[in-house]
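# step 3/5: fold
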Amino acid sequence: MNSEIIELKEDISSSPLYSSDLAPVPMDKRTWNMWSLAALWVGMAVCIPTYILASYMIKSGLSWQASLIIIGLANILVTIPMALNGHVGVKYGIPFPVFGRASFGINGIHLVSILRAVVACGWFGVQTWIGGLAFYAIWNALTGSTGTPELSAGKFVCFGLFWLVNMYFIWKGTESIKWLENLSAPILILIGVVLIAWSANKAGGFGIVLDQGDQLGKTSVVMNEINGAITLQLNPLLNPDGSIKATDFQVSVPLSDGSVKPLGWIPISNTFQLPEESAIDKGSLTAGKKPVQVQFRAGDTIRSSVVNVSITKLADGSPNFISYILWLTAMVGFWATMSLSISDITRYASKQKDQVVGQFLGLPGAMVLYSFVGIFVTCATVINFKDILIPDDAPWDPVSLLAKLESPALVIVSQIFMIMATLTTNIAANVIAPANAFSNLLPRKITFLGGGIITGFIGIIICPWWLLNEISGILIFVSGLLGPVLGILVCDYYVIRKTSLNLAALYKTDSEYSYEGRNVNPASMIAFTAGVLSALVGYWIPALEIFYHLSWFTGVLVSGGIYYLLMKSKIRP
C-alpha cells in the first residue's frame, strides 16, 4: 500500500469546486496521531446504543459470550474498510465528498454524500434529544423534582442547551473535536471499569454476576396449547441461591364478553394451566388475537410490569447458523456509514500507520468493552435490585438504570458522564460528515461551519421528541443501503486507479472527473442502483430475503463487481 503524501502543487483556488474547508489539509495542520484516532473511536463507541447492543442478541437466545464474540468480529471486519478508505485521507488530505468525485463524478457524488448526510442529521437529532434528557435529569436531581414522562418546557430548554454545546464545538472546529475526544477517552474507559467493579462488589463477586446472564436470555412467560390445554411456562428471575425472587403471580384472561378477568394472586410456580372455564375466550387466545396478562410480585409491595403473552409454537429456541450471520451483518452495519466518510477525519493524520493502528486500537476494543459493561451491569441488577423480578424488567439501557438510583449526587455524576459520552459520539459521528457534504454542494458559499449549522437545524426540524423510534428504524434501513457506495469507492480507488488520483483535477470542472461534461459517472450510478436493488429484492420477495438481511454485504459485492466490469476498460490506472 503506497504511503506517500501527495500535496497540491497547482493553484486552483479560483475553481467553484474549491474552498479552504474542502482543500487538502497541509502537513503543518495534520496534528492527529495514532492515539488521537484511537481516542476518537473510544469517544464515538461509548454511547447508549453500544451499551444496549448485546441485549438484543441475548434476548433473541444468544449467550452473552456469543454476543461479545459477534460484536468483536463485526467491528474488526468493519474496521478493515475504515482503514482502506482512511488511506486516501492521509495520502491526499481530502474529505469524503472530494474523494467521491473520482468515482461518482463532481455532481454525482452529491447523491450519496447527501444521503450519508441525511442519516447523520437524523442521528444528530436523536442523540441531541437524549443528551438534553440527561441535562433534564440533572435539573430534577438538583431541584428535588420527579420530572414528567410527557413533553415539557423543561425538556425543550435542556434540549436547546445540549444543542448549543454541540454548536460550540462545531464553531471551534476540528481541533476542538480532537481535544474533546482526547480528554474524554480515558475518562470513559475508566468509567466502564468502575461500573464493572462497583457492580461486582455490590453483587458479591465477578463470577456470580456473570452467572445471571442465562436468566436474562429467557422469555418471562411462554404460553402453549398442548392437547387442548393452555399452559403457561413462567420464568421469573432467581436469587443467587436458586430461590425465586417473586413470591406470587397473577393471570388475567380475556372473556367472551370482551372483558378481562384476573384469576387472583397465586403462589409462584414454574407452570400454570388455565382453568377450563366456559367464559374464557379460548378461540381468540389460540388465534393470537387476545393476550393473557401475567404479573409477578414479591411480597405485597413489589410488582413487575405486566407481560402480555399469546400462543407460541413449541421450539427449542436455539439460535442457528443463519441467526449468527444476521446478527454479524447487523453489527457490521452499526458503523457502516462511517466507513464511507472516514477520510473526513484521517485527512488530519500524517502517517498511514497512525490511521490504521489507531482505528484498530480504538474501535473493536471500545465496542467490546462497553457492550460487556452493558451485559455485566445489567446482570448485576438481577441481584442488586429487589424490584427486578422478570427478564422484561432488567434495565438494559443506562437511562432505566439511572432511574433506580436514589442518591441525587450519583444521578448528577452519572448523567454528566452520559452527556460526555453522547457529545463525543454526536460531534465526531454525526456532524463532520454532513458538514462537509453540505459544504460540497456550494463550496464557495457554504463553509464547514455553515454545513454544521445546517446539520444542527435539520436535527431540530425532524422533531426527534415525537419520532424517536420511527426515525431510528428509518435511519437503520437507509444505512443498510449504503453498502453499494463502499463497494464502488474501494473498487475505484484500489482496483481501477491503484490509489493514484489526480489531486488538482478533483477541484476542476473540466477534468477527467467531469466524465466528458456529464459531471456524473454513469458506471457508478448503474452499479449503485444495482447494489440497492439487489438488497431490496429480498424485501419484496420472501424467498430471497437473505439478500435483504445481508444488505450491506450484498450491496458491497454487487456494486463493486458491476462497477469493475463497467470501468476496467475505460479508465487507465
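# step 4/5: annotate
Residues 352 and 538 are 38 Å apart (CA to CA).
# step 5/5: archive (pending)
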